[in-house]
Amino acid sequence: MLAVNDRSCGPRRTGSGSPVRLASETLRRLTVDTLAAMGHAHPAPGIAIEYFTAGVGRPLVLVHGITESRRAWDPLLAPLIDAGYRVTAVDLRGHGASSVVAPYDLATMAGDLSAVLADIGADDALLVGHSLGGAVATAYAASGPCRGVVNVDQPLLLSGFQETLRSLEPQLRGSTAEFDGAISAIFEALAGPLDGAERRRIDDLRDGRQDVVLGAWEAVFASSPADLDAMVEGVISTVTAPYLSLHGIDPGAEYGEWLTEHVPSATFEVWPDLGHYPHLIRPADFVARVVAFDAPLG
């Protein structure tokens, strides 16, 4: 269900600049504000998955990472709209303004994403997911229709990630202070060269609910490495949509070989030394890459 944003969208003065630049900025604000709407999908009674939609064009859906929200994508909204997309940014279950109701496993979140796509009438969307959002988009694409998937820095071979998580499991299952410290350590290690202002913005958005995080990672904790990889391979082997796996942290050439073996439609790409947020460090390049990937998809 959509609710049209009725904020005033008249031109505002934002400081000096060339007439062309001012006109472009005004058009951008008009595009974002005039055509913006908040909505919520209901995958089950009592469950609301919140989303924001703006722009006109081919549907593109943004799915954020764990402990974050749709606002993590804010710097990319206007450039993607300007590139000709109708952009929808989703709050995953347990995040942002969406319902905090278990379970939080990938299959459930993929079902929530399906409900959003049905609500906005976009079964041909390009799905762009970062971190956990990349895994959710992939899980959805394993059984649901979409134009393609862009997975930003989420390796799907989870046994390596499992080793890191298990070393932190006592803290993650411990007190609130221990949990918060473990989450901070994880994302500090992942941040890479994300600049100070943008890192502070993401940190301010971060709202790590312990039950949500543990629920999302439960399969990683509970499975053996072999069972975990077999489970993942069983899911991704049914993905047939064009698939771009773009990484700021290099998971290794052998990962690219594994991915393309199990997802023949996949393109594996590394932007070296950019950390976990390549899309925020090089936003213009990222939008251009998304447009180039999407161009032949119809």
Entry summary:
This protein has helices at residues 19-34, 74-82, 106-120, 132-141, 159-172, 176-190, 196-205, 210-216, 218-222, 225-236, 253-262, 278-281, 283-294; strands at 2-4, 37-41, 49-54, 58-63, 85-90, 126-130, 148-152, 243-247, 266-270. With 298 residues, it is of the alpha/beta class.
Distinctive features:
alpha/beta; disordered N terminus; 9-stranded mixed beta sheet; single chain; 298 residues; globular
Task: Give a structural overview.
This protein has helices at 19-34, 74-82, 106-120, 132-141, 159-172, 176-190, 196-205, 210-216, 218-222, 225-236, 253-262, 278-281, 283-294; strands spanning 2-4, 37-41, 49-54, 58-63, 85-90, 126-130, 148-152, 243-247, 266-270. It is α/β, with parallel strands linked by helices. Helix 2 links the parallel strand 4 (58-63) and strand 5. Helix 1 crosses helix 2 and helix 3 (106-120) crosses helix 4 (132-141).
